[in-house]
Design a protein that fits this description.
Layout lengths: L1 H7 L8 H22 L4 H17 L4 H13 L2 H19 L2 H11 L6 H16 L2 H18 L4 H18 L4 H10 L3 H27 L11 H13 L10 H9 L4 H18 L5 H10 L8 H7 L8 H20 L1 H10 L5 H18 L3 H18 L4 H12 L10 H10 L3 H4 L4 H15 L9 H21 L3 H4 L1
Helix pairs in contact: 2-3, 3-17, 4-17, 4-25, 5-10, 5-14, 5-15, 6-7, 6-12, 7-8, 7-9, 7-11, 8-9, 8-16, 8-22, 10-20, 10-21, 11-21, 11-24, 14-15, 17-20, 18-20, 19-20, 19-21, 19-24, 20-21, 21-24
């Protein structure tokens, strides 16, 4: 009987160093080959990695039942973020249909002045990126148009490309319509609008520094005329012909600011944004209720006949976010497996041995984001691994998890287009025809935030600390999760 009980008893151990190396190497190899060579989405490759990591976990003594429960527990923690993400898709479709996004783009493009071209294109591109929540679409439309204008003004392509890319990726970190901040908040477990309010402390200085550098670089190039402005004129005239364009339609953007500063709950606030956009579509754009519902559900489809404009506006809708939602499910499931195996715990223990100051912890986070962007070639993977790996470390040092989401916002996504073999860098080359190696020095808003956030951390500027009660509660939650993972790893017979 004792021998039979011994066979049933399963000993769960921490991973060996070589097992950690193998697990992470397989992650990088599978995702790199799939994203770069096969050029497929990351969902199925992620599932393949989950299967492999699960087999490694079983080798360490875990059971599939335990791993499954751990994944479900991790997924339950991001359900609210998934709902917010899907509702963001509804807002995008509604705001385009209601003429809000077209009005923002229209007046933004009207601001462009050839005499201060680099400054205005920086302001306009970042504004439009925040309004639409997408970097790739903005770079692929306004960015391409800006390249043509810059060429006509005699500005070297790498300079224009760098400024366009950095301003475009500003929307990826600072727009509630972007899936990136939603992912970051889901991983770390913080409120979306608390995150936006908090990162202003480093975003504003970084933005001002970048704007000043754009002005300094732009002083070297005096335009000879309006050459190259034709593409902008085509976009604005097409928008004016197909939508009711009015300054009052820009006012709904203030709803985002109001939600951030008045701490309105995200879900009802985002629903109100979608409702306002739909009502604008019906009563201002003279649309129908059916078309408004379709725009919210399936997204807006541009039918202007002008490719640049249709590409810019054809997006949004609840269904457009389902692919990203499923990717988050895959990524969080993988993070749950890593948490159960102890891979992240062992890694963070080694990192914490050299961490003696808050600034060193932030620096370690920044370096991890950049290195993972280089080896994992996808900023989603970078955010998942970095966020999961450092979450407990921040709490142990008494730092609020918002400090970690700030690091992810300032380092994870926005440094990815600076790496030539990263998926984002590859896409930028395809759109603009300029290598990241050439435009990186001028992509100010992609690398300045990383410097600012580290300097501020060492100077203890803008660091939010936990109260002893908050720290104790968060550590207790982390301990409960770890304990649950260990319990799930034991066979039912033993637990009984």
């Amino acid at each position: 009987m004792e021998e039979k009980a011994a066979k049933k008893k399963r000993v769960i151990r921490d991973p060996y160093v070589w097992e950690i190396v193998v697990i992470l190497a397989v992650l990088v190899a599978v995702l790199s080959y799939s994203l770069i060579v096969l050029q497929v989405e990351a969902h199925i490759p992620f599932i393949i990695v989950i299967v492999f990591t699960s087999l490694m976990a079983i080798r360490m003594g875990h059971t599939w039942e335990g791993l499954e429960k751990t994944m479900l527990k991790s997924l339950s923690s991001v359900l609210q973020a998934i709902i917010i993400l899907v509702m963001v898709g509804m807002v995008i479709g509604a705001w385009i249909y209601g003429g809000i996004v077209p009005s923002l783009i229209y007046y933004g493009l009207k601001m462009i002045n050839p005499n201060i071209f680099l400054v205005t294109i920086f302001l306009v591109t970042s504004l439009c990126a925040v309004a639409t929540g997408t970097s790739w679409t903005i770079v692929g439309t306004l960015g391409v148009a800006s390249m043509g204008i810059g060429e006509g003004l005699g500005i070297p392509a790498p300079i224009t490309a760098g400024i366009v890319v950095s301003a475009g990726y500003f929307g990826d970190k600072f727009s509630p319509l972007s899936d990136t901040p939603n992912l970051h908040c889901a991983i770390v477990g913080v409120n979306l609008f608390d995150n936006f309010k908090f990162i202003l402390k480093t975003t504003i200085p970084s933005y001002i520094i970048s704007l000043i550098l754009c002005a300094i670089v732009g002083m070297k190039y005096a335009p000879s005329g309006e050459t190259g402005m034709n593409s902008i004129e085509i976009i604005t005239s097409t928008l004016d012909a197909n939508f009711v364009i009015h300054p009052l339609l820009i006012l709904p953007i203030l709803m985002v600011v109001g939600m951030i500063f008045f701490k309105i709950p995200a879900i009802p606030g985002i629903f109100l944004m979608a409702l306002v956009g739909s009502l604008c579509g019906i009563f201002v754009q003279d649309g129908s209720l059916a078309d408004a519902i379709n725009a919210v559900h399936y997204g807006y489809v541009g039918t202007t006949g002008v490719t640049e404009v249709d590409t810019l506006l054809t997006r949004g809708g609840m269904e457009s976010m389902l692919g990203t939602a499923s990717l988050i499910f895959c990524a969080i499931s993988y993070g749950g497996i890593l948490e159960a195996t102890g891979v992240l715990r062992v890694l963070i223990q080694k990192v914490l041995k050299i961490v003696k100051r808050d600034g060193t912890l932030v620096l370690s986070t920044v370096v991890s984001c950049i290195v993972l962007n280089m080896i994992a070639v996808d900023n989603y993977v970078t955010a998942v691994i970095t966020g999961s790996m450092f979450k407990k470390a921040y709490v142990k040092r008494g730092l609020h998890p918002l400090n970690l989401t700030k690091c992810l916002a300032e380092c994870a996504a926005i440094t990815s287009p600076l790496i030539p073999w990263n998926t984002c860098g590859i896409v930028m080359v395809g759109m603009l025809g300029v290598s990241p190696v050439e435009y990186a020095p001028y992509a100010f808003l992609c690398w300045i935030p990383s410097i600012v956030i580290v300097v501020f951390a060492y100077l203890n500027i803008g660091m939010k600390r936990l109260t002893p009660e908050e720290q104790k509660a968060l550590l207790a939650d982390e301990e409960n999760e770890t304990q649950s993972s260990m319990e799930y790893g034991e066979p039912k017979a033993q637990m009984a």
